[in-house]
Design goal:
This protein has about 475 residues and is α/β, with parallel strands linked by helices. It folds into two domains: about 1-245, Spore Coat Polysaccharide Biosynthesis Protein SpsA, Chain A (Alpha-Beta Complex), CATH 3.90.550.10; about 265-475, 3 Solenoid (UDP N-Acetylglucosamine Acyltransferase, domain 1). Helix content is about 20%, strand content about 30%. The protein is built from eleven helices and 42 strands. The longest helix has 21 residues, at about 245-265. The model has no long low-confidence stretch (mean pLDDT about 95). It binds uridine-diphosphate-N-acetylglucosamine and calcium ion.
């Protein structure tokens, strides 16, 4: 059986980022750089033409080589990968060798080793499959991915002879003026024949920079007349992130790629230039996204929604046909047909059931708001459970914090809270109860009661249907 193992290099300090955070943990579209590379590795698929070469080996998790801040990176990715430690960062060749024992322990023993770098986040599964495909069909000793760029920046240059055969990869530091003009660069994705790789790495001498470069294996394979294959990719998917300028370039490229994916899938994005959608966001068809909108984290948006302008939604679930204008929604759930905004805020733990309307300058935190409840103007509901069809009058506020503890407020279905009602928690308002304007409610209100004043007192019961209708009519006016 011909199987392969994957090694992802992530031991470097990332000095050029000038950051406390290890480079591969820097987020790109809401996911760490290394997460993007792992996603591409995990998505490698083979077509049937390769069946005889490679049986897919889903059991092999990628081996990630860690060094600098290893514990922090391991904590972020956990069981998703295997880990090898490179004690000292002596170069990319040295780093691959650190993965040898982890790879040699895999069963079945892989014949091919795919290597990629943890700082090339735009790499796609398709191009990785292509490199593997080329390597296996050409029966190469070494295959690597190249790109053509102008200017070639800080990438290693691919040196070929007059007949086009690869001779070596030369790093910028050691390149001659002539070599620096070469436009074909090394993208940092390689396949090696495992049996060839380990002895070569073990005997690799330190180069003039005092390091062990993986790229130096190309010259060795060329000198041995081994088969070296290359695959030509595009720079926009092989961009390496060494500093924050490249991080921003990668972010921009990925953002456009993500927006296009959603547009092709039926989402209208009115202004791609001002729309930011993280990699893991899902959006239903016929949703329209207006300018200045950010959808971040693991957010799911239903179909036929209208989001924006000026809306931020983080780590939330928004069901079909919701409208969210100029508002912020964080770690919250909006069921179908909710409308929200302008200028409202759902904080962590807000759950707005079907058809809730939340108007201007409202805030909901850690609360369940029942179906078709209306909260039109500048209200705050925190730590509350609100029933269906409640009318929350303008300026209604839950006083949920007594300076030390948070307390809950419960509001029964069909209740109507007058303008400027203050609810001193813990407190319960019974179903269909009414509070008069300016009431300060510090005791539980029974069902069907009308309370008024500061502190609120029972005025009368609203038992008959006619009275309720009358009161409701007055309220509407
Ligand atoms: C490398 C290549 C260069 C290529 C470019 C593509 C080498 C010598 N050069 O340069 O030809 O054009 O990538 O992006 O390989 N790492 C370790 N241990 C180490 C050193 C590095 O794990 O001892 C890891 C880093 O964390 C990083 C990756 O290897 O994820 C690449 O290292 P980096 O220093 O960024 O190499 P480049 O200078 O970008
Ligand atoms: Ca790099």
């Amino acid at each position: 059986m011909n199987t392969y193992a994957t090694v992802v290099l992530a031991a470097g300090k990332g000095t050029r980022m000038r950051s406390k955070l290890p480079k591969v943990l820097h987020p790109l579209a809401g996911m760490p750089l290394l997460g993007h590379v792992l996603k591409a590795v995990e998505g490698i698929r083979f077509d049937s033409s390769l069946a005889s070469f490679a049986s897919p080996i889903s059991t092999h998790r990628p081996v990630v080589v860690l060094g600098h801040e290893a514990a922090q990176i391991e904590a972020a990715f956990g069981e998703r990968c295997l880990y090898a430690i490179q004690q000292e960062q002596l170069g990319t060749g040295h780093a691959v060798l650190a993965a040898q024992s982890a790879i040699d322990a895999l069963a079945p023993l892989p014949q091919t080793v795919l290597v990629c770098y943890g700082d090339t986040p735009l790499i796609r599964s398709e191009i990785l499959s292509q490199v593997l495909h080329e390597h296996l069909t050409r029966r190469a000793t070494l295959t690597f991915l190249t790109a053509h760029t102008d200017p070639p920046s800080d990438y290693g240059r691919v040196v070929r002879d007059s007949s086009g055969r690869v001779r070596e990869i030369v790093e910028v530091k050691r390149a001659s003026a002539e070599q620096l003009r070469i436009r074909e660069v090394n993208s940092g994705v390689y396949c090696f024949e495992r049996a060839w790789l380990w002895p070569i790495l073990q005997n690799l001498p330190r180069n003039a920079s005092g390091e062990y470069y993986l790229t130096d294996l190309v010259a060795i394979a060329a000198a041995q007349e081994r088969t070296i294959a290359t695959v030509s990719g595009t720079l926009d998917e092989t961009i390496g992130v060494n500093n924050r300028v490249q991080l921003a370039e990668a972010e921009q490229l990925l953002r456009l790629r993500t927006l296009e994916r959603h547009m092709y899938a039926g989402v209208t994005i009115v202004d791609p230039a001002t729309t930011y959608i993280d990699d893991e966001v899902q959006i239903g068809a016929d949703t329209v996204i207006f300018p200045g909108t950010m959808l971040t984290g693991k957010t799911t948006i239903g179909a036929d929604c209208r989001l924006g302008p000026g809306t931020t939604i983080y780590q939330s679930v928004v069901a079909d046909r919701c409208v969210v204008r100029n508002s912020i929604v964080e770690e919250s759930v909006l069921e179908e047909d909710v409308s929200m905004g302008p200028f409202s805020h759902c904080r962590t733990g807000a759950h707005l059931a079907r058809g809730v309307h939340m108007g201007n300058f409202g805030e909901v935190k850690n609360s369940y708001i029942g179906a078709e409840t209306d909260m039109h103007h500048f209200s705050y509901l925190g730590d509350a459970s609100v029933g269906e069809r409640v009318n929350v009058g303008a300026g209604t506020v839950t006083a949920n914090f007594d300076g030390t503890h948070k307390h809950r407020t419960t509001i029964g279905a069909g209740a109507s809270l007058g303008v400027d009602t203050v609810l001193i928690a813990p407190v319960t308002i019974g179903a269909r109860a009414y509070t008069g304007s300016g009431s300060v409610v510090n005791r539980d209100v029974p069902e069907d009661a009308l309370v008024v004043g500061v502190p609120a007192r029972l005025l009368r019961m609203l038992n008959t249907r006619e009275e309720q209708d009358k009161d409701e009519k007055e309220h509407m006016e």
